[in-house]
Write a structure and sequence with these properties.
This protein starts with a strand and ends in an 8-residue tail after the last strand. It folds into 2 domains: about 15-65; about 85-285, q2cbj1_9rhob like domain (Jelly Rolls), CATH 2.60.120. It has helices at about 20-30, 35-45, 50-65, 80, 115-125, 160-175, 210, and strands spanning about 5-10, 10-15, 90, 95-100, 105-110, 130, 135, 145, 150-155, 185-190, 195-200, 220-225, 235, 235-240, 245, 255, 270-275, 275-280, 280-290. Helix 1 (about 20-30) packs across helix 3 (about 50-65) and helix 2 (about 35-45) runs antiparallel to helix 3 (about 50-65). The protein contains 7 helices and 19 strands. It is of the alpha+beta class. Strand 7 and strand 8 (about 145) form a beta hairpin. Its cofactor is L-ascorbate. This is 2-oxoglutarate-dependent dioxygenase. Its EC number is 1.14.11.2. It comes from Cupriavidus necator (strain ATCC 17699 / DSM 428 / KCTC 22496 / NCIMB 10442 / H16 / Stanier 337) (Ralstonia eutropha).
């Protein structure tokens, strides 16, 4: 499995091979894909440029010597197996490839969780209701605007629109968390320079303002960030305590869980939305609770 990212040539990208990657390359070479197309696909998925070219060249060299391409294990149903599939997650209406999985803390990257058309449709739905994104005041529970979060956002109720209903069902399938445990989908837009400085998504029960949130579904247990476009530069999701940065690629989604088996909260899930250098960034965020969520309480 790919477990870390490194910085090469000023860009951040994954630089570790894995059986999953080798089998993916072998399968696509057997299907007739050209080297340039495979390199481009790897770059869009967050791999380092030099590593991607070396990996593709090595895969073509092995194929040229007549080695039989490795056959990947068939994708298994997450619901049937009780855990996510090794190479893909069952999205209900389709299989969703898993590009990498980090075991501790629990972080995984889904490839093309949403189609390009679905991403564009979510952006279009949100444009008419964008407003400056607030955060919960940890002492009062009120929503305040702060300099650390500079995005514009739009909130949707659960199942508010047929498109959202379909996406929420797919999220529930790939994460194993029931749809009714999810907060409403939040669409966020960051302009150049826009960022969200390092923070936790879970609530601190010791802070009265945040403790109030626990009455409407319990603690947040996981977050899913879906990239609705690919910024020209910048805008990665960073996990500074594990040295991981996830490149924002349209349709991909990073999922991270912060509830440990003993009920403790994993502080290694501190994360940030890094500044957008050029262009803009659109994401959809889904927060998942330990119990069914009631937004009207």
């Amino acid at each position: 499995m790919i477990r870390e990212a490194s910085v090469a040539g000023g860009k951040t990208g994954y630089t570790e091979s894995s059986p999953d990657l080798e089998q993916w390359l072998a399968r696509h070479i057997a299907q007739g894909f050209a080297a340039d197309a495979l390199v481009l696909s790897m770059l869009r998925s967050g791999y380092d440029d030099a590593f991607a070219r070396q990996a593709v060249a090595a895969a073509f060299a092995q194929d040229a010597y007549g080695a039989a391409p490795a056959r990947p294990a068939p994708a298994r149903s997450a619901a049937a197996a009780g855990t996510p599939a090794v190479y893909a997650a069952d999205g209900g209406d389709r299989q969703v490839p898993i590009l990498f999985r980090l075991a501790s803390p629990q972080v995984q990257l889904f490839q093309q969780l949403l189609t390009d058309d679905e991403c564009d449709a979510l952006v279009a739905l949100s444009r008419g209701r964008l407003a400056r994104s607030p955060v919960v005041n940890p002492d009062t529970g009120d929503e305040n605007l702060i300099d650390a979060r500079t995005s514009m956002g739009a909130m949707f109720q659960v199942a508010e629109h047929p498109l959202i209903t379909r996406i929420e069902a797919r999220i529930a399938a790939v994460t194993g968390v029931p749809a009714e445990h999810g907060e409403g989908l939040q669409i966020l837009n960051y302009k150049p320079g826009g960022e969200y400085q390092p923070h936790f998504d879970y609530f601190n029960p010791q802070r009265p303002g945040e403790a109030r949130q626990l009455s409407v579904g319990g603690q947040r247990i996981a977050t899913l960030v879906i990239y609705l476009n690919t910024p020209e530069a910048g805008g990665a999701t960073a996990f500074p305590r594990v040295g991981l940065e996830v490149a924002p690629v349209k349709g991909n989604a990073v999922y991270f869980s912060y509830l440990l088996p003993d009920g403790a909260l994993d502080e290694r899930t501190l994360h940030a939305g890094l500044p957008v250098a050029f262009g803009e960034k659109w994401i959809a965020t889904k927060w998942l609770r330990e119990r069914p969520y009631r937004s009207d309480a």
